[in-house]
């Protein structure tokens, strides 16, 4: 009977605003920022020789990493811990760092590229972060237990 009552209860929706905080923030490797969620991607960019004899630009994902530590919103009167934020609609991280590392050129490299039908251009690294101290508003369902 208790389960039947629970299934008919309307979910409790709340809005919480505050500044992002954590007891154990992540130190971002490239941007130097401290954050609670960090995503890093690295893409190899290259030109490839197609059947028509021309070069077309392409890229391949080499690395996709994500880290998250327990974090909360603090409004000055207290803290509310946030869970499952990455799956929320409209949630986007700030670009903390975006760099392109050139592959460099050499005679050996150029010969290998020609034989493989590829010209390596370099690696694009992007670090996205939810920084400590960011103002954020969360709308969500209260969970008990």
Automatic annotation (TrEMBL):
Keywords: Membrane, Metal-binding, Transferase, Transmembrane, Transmembrane helix, Ubl conjugation pathway, Zinc, Zinc-finger
Membrane topology: Multi-pass membrane protein
EC number, UniProt record: 2.3.2.27
GO annotation, cellular component aspect: membrane
One Pfam family of this chain: GIDE
The reaction(s) this protein catalyses: S-ubiquitinyl-[E2 ubiquitin-conjugating enzyme]-L-cysteine + [acceptor protein]-L-lysine = [E2 ubiquitin-conjugating enzyme]-L-cysteine + N(6)-ubiquitinyl-[acceptor protein]-L-lysine
Broad class of where this protein is predominantly found: membrane
Organism domain of life: Eukaryota
UniProt key word Zinc: yes
Example GO BP: protein ubiquitination
Subcellular localization(s) per the UniProt record: Membrane
GO molecular function, one term: zinc ion binding
Residue ranges of domain E3 Ubiquitin ligase MUL1-like in the record: 43-142
Name of the featured protein: RING-type E3 ubiquitin transferase
């Amino acid at each position: 009977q208790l389960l039947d009552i629970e299934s008919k209860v309307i979910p409790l929706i709340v809005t919480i605003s505050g500044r992002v905080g954590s007891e154990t923030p992540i130190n971002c490797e490239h941007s130097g920022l401290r954050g609670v969620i960090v995503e890093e991607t690295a893409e190899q960019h290259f030109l490839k020789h197609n059947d028509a004899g021309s070069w077309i630009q392409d890229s391949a994902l080499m690395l996709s990493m994500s880290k998250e530590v327990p974090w909360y919103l603090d409004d000055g009167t207290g803290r509310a811990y946030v869970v499952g934020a990455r799956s929320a609609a409209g949630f986007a991280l700030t670009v903390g760092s975006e760099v392109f590392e050139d592959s460099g050129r050499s005679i050996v490299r150029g010969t290998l590229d020609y034989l493989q039908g590829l010209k390596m251009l370099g690696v694009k690294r992007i670090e996205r972060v939810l920084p400590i101290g960011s103002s954020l508003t969360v709308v969500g369902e209260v969970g008990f237990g």
